[in-house]
Amino acid sequence: MRTPALGAARLLSGAGLAAALMLPTAVPAQAAPPSRAPAADGKKGQELPGMPSALDPEAAEVICTPASREKAKKQDWSRQRLDLDRLHRHSTGEGVTVALIGTGVDPDAAGLGGRVTAPGTAGDDCVGHGTFLAGLIAGTGGNSPRLAGVAPAARILALRGTDRRGQADTALVVNALREATEAQAEVIAVAVALPRKDPALSGAVAEARRAGAVVVAAAAPDPPSRGGTDEVPSRTYWPAGEPGVLSVADMLPGGARPDGSLPTDGIDLAAPGAGVVSGGPRGDGHYLGGGVPVATAYAAGAAAAVRAAHPDDSPDDVVRRLTTTAYPADIPQLDAYAAVTTVLGDPAAAGGPERAAEPVTVRDTSAAERATGRATLFVLLGSAGVLAVLWAGFALSRARARGWRPAGTAGTANQ
Questions:
Q1: Are 153 and 314 in contact (CB under 8 A)?
Q2: In the chain, what is the straight-line distance between the N-terminal and C-terminal CA atoms, in Å?
């Protein structure tokens, strides 16, 4: 009489194991976040060399970043997220000069030729990072037009804010800000973040804003390559912390900041900052890069596109346009297309901005999360149903074995 019970027990065990194996399929795998200078992009992999933001400061010899021999095969996620193909039908940043303060820019780099002014040593971009950022701001993409920057008709004024290895220097940043102001640059992008407030720096930023420039700055430096950031306290970096400066941080495709980001406060805007494709100062190949400076370059390009499309807007109006049209999140996410095409009302009006026709659709993960929840629920309910059917079969077989008598009476009847 134990054989039916044993068989049913085995069926129940098998059903439980099947349910346990099925449950993980309803929960999507969490991929590790891309590194800040990744070597591959996407599931299939876009194998490209990483673009560093600085060279090893302890190396005995300065070895410049070599030319890339690889070409990107597709448009990266960041350009799709910013809807650049549609944006360029409304503004390309023509007539706007963006001063880029970083490692310098090669005036002859692919996609930038004829639109870069690089005084002094700013034309010697040994690191390559400044040229990479310039491509995101104003590059045409060369033979790959879908890899164009946000404002591909804008001009670049390259100014050095670092030494040749890419290490930020306060005095250089101050001088660069003053040069940008004298050159009447409409947008100033500061791709470096300094750890200490400096009176000369504050004065240079204030002077630039009075002259009519939109100042965009990295909210924090890239994290150190050695050691973790778990014990690094939150702090303000400069000039991002100065009044009126648009402070920009990087984000992953899902909208979150990368793991290990240096903590800071006062961030105004987040922009793509991982797995981003651009060119370099040597050759016509492509690199992948990321980090806060990349996000800053995208925001500066968007500011240039706005200034070209709305030449009567004040610098404060441009910043308001970039922030109020951003996709709502814990840190508002840059929406370059909406920033150019949205019709803004009176800032004191309660109704807020009115979107233009064909608003950009930003990828929303809530539907995927709801679908995941439903899939998990269906698996659980399905597994419970299977167990219920098997338990009913087991109970019926036991009842038949007892001659349909209540449990506990079969033994008495046989005595």
A1: no
A2: 16
Half-sphere exposure of 100 (CA within 13 A, CB side): 38
pTM of the model: 0.76
Alpha-carbon separation of residue 71 from 82, 277, 285 (angstroms): 22, 10, 5
In contact, 162 and 221? CB cutoff 8 Å: no
What stretches of 219-291 adopt beta strand conformation (E)? 246-251, 269-272, 276-279, 286-289
Distances (CA, A) of 373 to 26, 367, 368, 370, 384: 8, 10, 9, 5, 16
Across 31-151, where does the E strand assignment appear?
A: 97-102, 116-117
Helix (H) or strand (E) segment spanning residue 52 = none
Write out pLDDT tens, residues 114-159: 999 999 999 999 999 999 999 999 999 988 999 999 999 999 999 9
Burial class (CB in 10 A: 0-12, 13-18, 19+), 171: exposed
